[in-house]
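FAQ

Q: What does a record look like?
A: Structure on top, sequence underneath. For example:
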């Protein structure tokens, strides 16, 4: 008997996880379709989502980049970037904690599927994408009850009091893409397999490509270019938030334009990233 390797939540296993989740969604739809009489539009939309997941581009956001993206989305001081594809499957290493605002405990969101539904103009006159999201969690109890055997993710069913939460993840995705386009902040690269992540050959097909978004580390101590006390022992890293400023340009710097200064993480590489206070996504 061939012993199957346990599926791990890692960048290398994402193609297998994506396939398992898509099959699980199909099974759920078949089992519940007889209860959906009169909801043909909902059923068609759900089938579209499962089909999209089966072939969606895949992204893995590192733990520190996840913290930076959530903090950036929460402050709202960033240019809202477009998603790189109409659909996608993205994993947030470390997860994103949720707060329903009512004392209810909700598992963290560890991954999601997005589907872009076009764009609209917000109250400031800026173009904003309309994004639908299907939230996924690695919470053991939710995975146990899910219809995705051997897959370490399951669909997160939110309580009625938290139905506005998925719309907040459109902002988080937009922050991820804005940060990933700032070369001094983020690096996009291919995952590096380890001996624990040996995968069958189909995992390396072009359609199964996974891209990682990781934080660029500071290789020097804060203020090392200035006169600083060399005896200071740094214990952690911290987020310096981004902002907009009127950037001088043109002849003799006589003109001004609104320029986004991206956030960044300050502190030596290898130290823990402290986000104070802990940022949670809440219902508005």
């Amino acid at each position: 008997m061939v012993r199957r390797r346990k599926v791990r939540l890692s960048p290398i296993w994402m193609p297998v996880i994506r396939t398992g989740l898509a099959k699980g969604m199909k099974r759920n739809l078949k089992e519940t379709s007889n209860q959906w009489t009169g909801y043909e539009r909902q059923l068609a939309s759900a089938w579209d989502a499962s089909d999209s997941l089966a072939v969606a581009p895949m992204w893995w956001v590192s733990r520190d980049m996840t913290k930076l993206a959530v903090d950036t989305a929460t402050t709202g001081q960033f240019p809202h970037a477009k998603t790189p594809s109409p659909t996608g499957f993205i994993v947030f290493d470390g997860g994103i904690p949720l707060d329903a605002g009512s004392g209810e405990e909700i598992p963290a969101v560890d991954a999601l599927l997005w589907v872009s539904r076009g764009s609209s103009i917000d109250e400031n006159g800026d173009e904003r994408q309309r994004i639908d999201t299907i939230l996924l969690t690695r919470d053991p109890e939710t995975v146990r009850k899910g219809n995705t055997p051997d897959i370490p993710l399951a669909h997160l069913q939110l309580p009625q009091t938290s139905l506005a939460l998925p719309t907040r993840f459109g902002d988080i995705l937009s922050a991820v893409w804005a940060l990933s386009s700032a070369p001094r902040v983020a690096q996009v690269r291919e995952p590096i397999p380890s001996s624990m992540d040996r995968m069958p050959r189909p995992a390396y097909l072009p359609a199964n490509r996974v891209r990682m978004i990781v934080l660029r580390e500071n290789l020097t101590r804060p203020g090392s270019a200035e006169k600083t006390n060399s005896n200071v022992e740094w214990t952690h890293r911290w987020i310096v938030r981004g902002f907009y400023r009127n950037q001088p340009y043109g002849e003799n710097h006589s003109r001004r334009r609104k320029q986004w200064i991206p956030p960044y993480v300050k502190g030596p590489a290898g130290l823990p990233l402290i986000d104070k206070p802990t940022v949670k996504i809440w219902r508005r």
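Q: Is there anything notable about this one?
A: Residues 221-228 have pLDDT under 50 and may be disordered.
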